[in-house]
Model the fold of this input.
Amino acid sequence: MPQPARLIWANNRDNQAGVTLTGTGHSDIIDLAQVEAVFFSVVVGSPPDNIQNVPGPGRWLTVSLQVQDAGGTWLPVAALSPRRVNFAGGSSMPYYADQLHDYASVGLFLPQSSELSRTARPVRPILPLVLPQYARIRWDVESVGVPPGAFGRTVISLYGR
Done:
């Protein structure tokens, strides 16, 4: 029987409500030696104005899970771009109205899928991949054509099994 997933890393261990992200940064090295698969997520409780889902005029946030190769190079294996969730008909659910989020699963025994889920949104990335021993989380807050912004009350989590 599989073991329950456990929290491996989170950016909000000192502040449950989340932290404010600006600029570029990364976590310390995360040891993945004891896990075969991870669930990686980001939730933004207070997004800035002029948020964009992709680089362009406005502000955007990219959070990536990176693994280290034998030469010490950090390689991104999953990149998250938090955005509002719209369901069939274009409406957002009331409990998600003010939050942005995104998530992915990466690991050895995960099926690859690109089908649509029952909520009519694309299934989040599921990447079958042997996990190297070391990883880190990187975030990039960027803006084009507008003053720099901050992504407040942001929680980044990495669970493993």
